[in-house]
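call fold(seq) -> tokens
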Amino acid sequence: MPCTIDYHVVEGEPICDIAAEIFKDDSRIRFSPSLPVESDRFDVVMVGSTLQYIEDYQELLRHLSKYEAKYILLSNLPAGDIETTFATEQRNLNGSIVAAWFFRVSDIVRAMAQNDYSLLLKAASEDEWDQSNFPESCRIGRPCHLLFGRS
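ret:
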């Protein structure tokens, strides 16, 4: 029996509009500018390079855990063995400034444990970030990928 994989992609509305047109003939992929309702179920939830921009990231993790996925992958996460989780300014090329979190890995692991998930894998990204503007105790070096499994 062939395995069917369906995707539900959450992205900004302009991207959803373009992607829906590109993939209009593929019923396996859906695009939405908002999270699915908590009663939906997924096998895997992946959050790629996003959690750092969510003001109440702990609430988002709680919401994602309600999907009861077997796995939750936090990819390209600015997290490391730093002194404390903190928020800072991210200055983008176009001159805009965006608030962004840098996480202490143990804070994310604790938040996920409160939602019945345990850390299965931690891997460093290949990209090393220049954080020479931060005190050494706040530098993560490389973003990481954290894979959690339902406890």
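Residues 37-150 form a domain with the Rossmann fold fold (CATH 3.40.50.150).
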